[in-house]
Write a structure and sequence with these properties.
The protein is an alpha/beta fold. It has a single domain (4-173), classed as Restriction Endonuclease (3-Layer(aba) Sandwich), CATH 3.40.91. Helices cover 34% and strands 21% of the residues. It has helices at residues 26-29, 70-93, 100-103, 106-109, 132-142, 144-149, 162-167; strands spanning 4-6, 9-11, 19-20, 40-44, 52-59, 117-124, 157-161, 171-173. The strands form 2 sheets. Strands 3-4-5-6-7 form a 5-stranded mixed beta sheet. A 3-stranded antiparallel beta sheet has the order 1-2-8. β4 (40-44) and β5 (52-59) form a beta hairpin. α2 crosses α5 (132-142). The model has no long low-confidence stretch (mean pLDDT 95).
């Protein structure tokens, strides 16, 4: 897939069929009224390991925990986007959305959802590493019910900056 820009970061390129840009999809357009959505779903595969779908939201900045109520509102918005993208992704694979059949890559359609892991990822461009942990703690707490009900595991919620995103192969340029 060709690279694309979100929050002043260049995402990709990714292997063909491994990225579903849910935020710009017809599937999302059909349900978007009062439904917030993360940017995209990325299928990550490795030999001898189960596949993972990384659900990615990108931001240019974030408020600090001491800037209330903005911080709580920000965490709530990110929680909703990531949880909604997880649900829409799974519902699309299960053929619950008519438009998804035409736009969802075949590699997603072929997944065994019971064996697929999920990672909910917030990337904040230009963020200092020291600022990430309070955000991750708050987001992990906000997504606790989602992580529990989907049995996502203790490392399912991740907050990273542009440097980590590059190291993980998510972006090619900040």
């Amino acid at each position: 897939m060709e690279p694309f820009v979100e929050s002043e970061m260049t995402f990709g390129p990714y292997a063909d069929g491994h990225c579903f840009r849910v935020e710009v999809s017809e599937t999302y357009r059909a349900i978007q009224d009062k439904v917030q959505m993360a940017e995209f779903l990325l299928l990550r595969t490795q030999a001898d390991a189960p596949p993972f779908i990384w659900i990615v939201e990108a931001k240019q900045s974030s408020p600090r925990p001491e800037t209330q109520p903005n911080f709580s509102e920000f965490i709530g918005e990110i929680r909703d986007k990531l949880a909604n993208a997880l649900t829409v992704g799974v519902a699309s694979i299960l053929k619950r959305h008519p438009a998804a059949d035409a736009e969802l890559p075949d590699s997603f359609k072929a997944l065994d959802l019971g064996a697929t892991g999920f990672r909910l990822v917030l990337i904040i461009n230009g963020h200092q590493k020291a600022w990430l942990q309070p955000l991750q703690d708050a987001l992990r707490s906000a997504l606790h019910a989602t992580a529990q009900t989907w049995v996502l595991g203790p490392n399912a919620v991740v907050v990273i900056n542009h440097e980590d995103a590059k190291r993980f192969g998510l972006i090619s340029a900040p």
